[in-house]
Amino acid sequence: MPIALLTDFGFQDSYVGVMKGVIATIAPTAQLIDLSHALPPQDLYAARFTLLSAYPYMPPGTVYLVVVDPGVGTQRRAVAVRTSQGIFVGPDNGVLSGIWQSNCQRNQGIVKAVELTNVDYWRSPHPSTTFHGRDIFAPAAAHLANGVPLDNLGARIDPQSLINLPLQAPIATAKGWTGAVQYIDHFGNAATTLLASTVTVSDWSVTIGERTLPGSQTYEDVLTGQGLALVGSHGFVELAVNRGSAQQQFGLAVGDRVELTLHPSPAPCDPA
Q: What's the CATH code, domain 3-161?
């Protein structure tokens, strides 16, 4: 069973390699997939969206190991959550919530959730207070990849108690939809919470603050340096600048409100 890793550890230090070493000791045949280790440090929203946009392309049954954990060593829970897409292991701080926090429904698709309390499946019963990725999360993911039942790793918890990061879900309006920026990539493109399915006509636009961006098909539909909106490869409406950074040019931030306006074609005139 493959294990997909997502962290903010970077590559300068040994943290990623150490976690892989712990996994290899327990599950030497598990295939490891690096989703990213270059997330902005402690950026829960970036972790949430990266996981959300990546998991559809992973093999069925993948174990997802997510370690973006500014609350490491505190009372925040360590959890494992089974959904129809696989098993997600990480801190209960919202980084996993994009998987089930969709279509305006809380905790959709969760089959089972447990808190990782069984020290028999930790690297040590006395874990470091600064590196749960090594001592709790990596061992748990490895044991799960080996086929250990989820219930063995700890006590079941109510899925409704899992932390969800606050983001404006899509809301229908008289003219279209409202939503929010949920992620900004390293190009400066801003993915919103508006799904591709909200774009139901060919003529549309997105307003953010005082600026309105035309709905487009490709980045090259506008001149270099001009802003636009389009449906990104991740399936969400995205704000961009052709060969530039929407984040820098428009001063965008996660949580900024956006308004999508649909411009239906006028009814044909009656020649009579």
A: 3.40.50.10790
Domain locations in the chain as residue ranges: 3-161, 171-262
Cα end-to-end distance, the chain, whole Å: 68
Residues 6+ apart with CB under 8 A from 153: 80, 114, 116, 117, 118, 121, 140, 143, 144
Confidence at residue 105, expressed as pLDDT on a 0 to 100 scale: 43
pLDDT above 90 as % of the chain:
89
Give percent above pLDDT 70 in the chain: 94
Q: Which CATH superfamily is domain 171-262 in?
A: Bacterial fluorinating enzyme like (2.40.30.90)
Distance CA 212, CA 207 (A): 4
Other residues' Cβ atoms within 10 Å of the Cβ of residue 107: 18
Task: List the Cα angle 7/13/18 in 5-degree steps.
Answer: 70
Mean residue pLDDT of the chain comes to 93
H helices of 27-168, where? 44-54, 132, 138-145
Closest to 92 measured CA to CA, from 41, 34, 2, 160: 160
What are 84-105's pLDDT values in tens digits? 889 999 999 999 999 987 644 4
Closest by alpha carbon to 90, among 77, 101, 109, 99?
77
> How many other β-carbons are positioned within 10 Å of the β-carbon of residue 171?
11
Give every CB contact of residue 80 below 8 A, 6+ residues apart in sequence.
87, 88, 89, 113, 114, 116, 140, 144, 150, 153, 154
Predicted confidence (pLDDT) at residue 220 exceeds the cutoff of 80? yes
User: What is the per-residue pLDDT for 108?
Assistant: 53
- Beta strand pairing call for 3-7 and 32-36: parallel
Global pTM exceeds 0.70? yes
